[in-house]
Amino acid sequence: MVDVILDPQRWESLEAGDQAVIESWLVAEGDHVRAGQVLAKATLVHESVDVEAPHAGMVEQIAMPAGERFGPGHVLARLVSF
Predict the structure, then answer these.
(1) What CATH number is attached to the domain comprising 69?
(2) Of 10, 34, 37, 51, whose CB is crowded by the most CB atoms within 10 A?
(3) Is the pLDDT of residue 67 over 70?
(4) Which pTM was predicted?
């Protein structure tokens, strides 16, 4: 199983306590995805960012619903690798 998180480098220049929000999911649980595929759109301090699949696999769980706020290191989804 692979946890999907927002790239840690995105958080480096931000202040402690800053959060992002999932705007929309572009996949559903059970979907097969390829490495690098955009899974969701998020907003981080007024900037739109893509949440990408780190590996090919199947979306086992969407852990962070659209509209929810999250911080660094939060698991957004889980993939089962092939």
Answers:
(1) 2.40.50.100
(2) 51
(3) yes
(4) 0.87
